[in-house]
Amino acid sequence: MAQDRYDLVIVGMGSGGMPAAELAASLPLRVAVVERGRVGGDCLWTGCVPSKALLASAKAAHVMRTAARWGLPSVDPEINTEAVWKRMRAVQAEIAATDDDPERFRRMGVELVTGRARLLDPHTVEVDGRRLRTRFVLVCTGSRPAEPPVEGLDVAGFLTSETVFELERAPASLVMIGGGPIAVELAQAFTRLGVRVTVLQRGPGILPKDEPALVSTLTGMLRDEGVDLRLGIDVRSVRAHGGSKVVSAVQGGQTVEVAAEAVFVGAGRAPNVEGLGLEEIGVEVTDRGVAVDDRMRTAVPSVYAAGDVTGGPLFTHAAAHQGVRAVRDMFFPGRGKVATLVPWCTFTDPELAHAGVTSTEARAEHAEDVEVHRLDLSHSDRARADGHPEGAIVAVTVKGRLVGAHILAPAAGELIHELALAVHERRKLQELASLIHVYPTLSTSIAQLAAEAAFAGARRYAWLVRAGSLAARVTGR
Prior knowledge:
Elements: E1 4-11, H1 17-25, E2 31-35, H2 41-45, H3 48-65, H4 81-96, H5 102-108, E3 111-114, E4 117-121, E5 124-127, E6 130-139, E7 143-145, H6 153-156, E8 173-177, H7 181-192, E9 196-201, H8 212-225, E10 228-231, E11 233-241, E12 244-251, E13 254-260, E14 262-265, E15 269-271, E16 303-305, H9 316-331, E17 344-346, E18 351-356, H10 359-366, E19 370-376, H11 381-386, E20 392-398, E21 401-409, H12 412-424, H13 444-459, H14 462-475
Parallel strand pairs: 1-2, 1-6, 2-3, 6-16, 8-9, 8-14, 9-10
Antiparallel strand pairs: 4-5, 5-6, 7-15, 11-12, 12-13, 17-18, 18-21, 19-20, 20-21
Helix pairs in contact: 1-9, 3-4, 3-7
């Protein structure tokens, strides 16, 4: 059988595969990408893009409803969620026709192959009977929403991040199972769009990987907006009854039931590894996904993997970084590890951004060497002028050096990168005070926080100032 020959075959044209293909195409390489669905992957079709479009509409509705805080008349908007969904699809279509357009990649020289891929050996990928012979393979097949083992869930039916955006309109009411970033973002958005939302979280709090103090503040804000957030609740079963979905759960030893038009499951994700033939050729696959080293190599030297399929940080930006680094490792001399510091942001309003470790994690590892620095946005002139003084900036240091940074603020995802760079370079917090920040901006609060750390350091040397004054009096100078 004739075989087409390539330098690189990428399996999956999503957040990891697209930037990897773009880099590889810029080199003198022959590149093919196998995609079974649509170019753009989860980010464009079921993740970042539709959710952020939905959040934008929800925020606009909330601003109208609460305009009195800015000295304007508040208006309770008449919301047609069908129109909101149409706008969301228009945003997707625009991106699909421009940056994520398959023709753009073809013009780069990338060959797009439609179908399901299977590795026959370390250098051969089969796609619906066609064989692609290649020097390297990069697996970027992503992940999908995990289905928790809840009795009756399959029969009753449920929504996930892959199906909720396929609706024509929002349901009138919604029960959400899980309190992670996706569920929390959508819970606030749906509530602001007039949907009655109940969130059932098994653990003691939502967003368990984020800074506890800021999560506590955000939790109170979500409840104030009307999100029915229930913690420490163990979902046992789901059943359909009279046109509704009824979720049965146990909370504090008591059985509780919550009914809604629809159930949304946001209980983690599972890697897309089935049918790829990875284990048959010697690639290690675990429950978390494809096992890789710090250069994104699998146990088979010619096979790499990047993004959600590896079970690492489940973020678009992490997948893009890993995909590009994998291509670099394949074809460039010298080796470089994938960055382990991955900042992230939960796009609630206000946003909750994260880089490095939390205060809890730092204290567990470093004990008395940890200092937690906090500046509330109630001290920010810009936050007060904008009418959003509710959040805070938290910096976690070990022996003065930044190991974690967390921001609850409007546009926290934009603010976190300065602190993420400082964490990455193990800078001292007070060093950020030497950079002049534009006033009045929210980033001025980072300078304020750093200045407080610098002033505290200066106070330790106050005796020098006093000694100098005494010397001046003695010498008459």
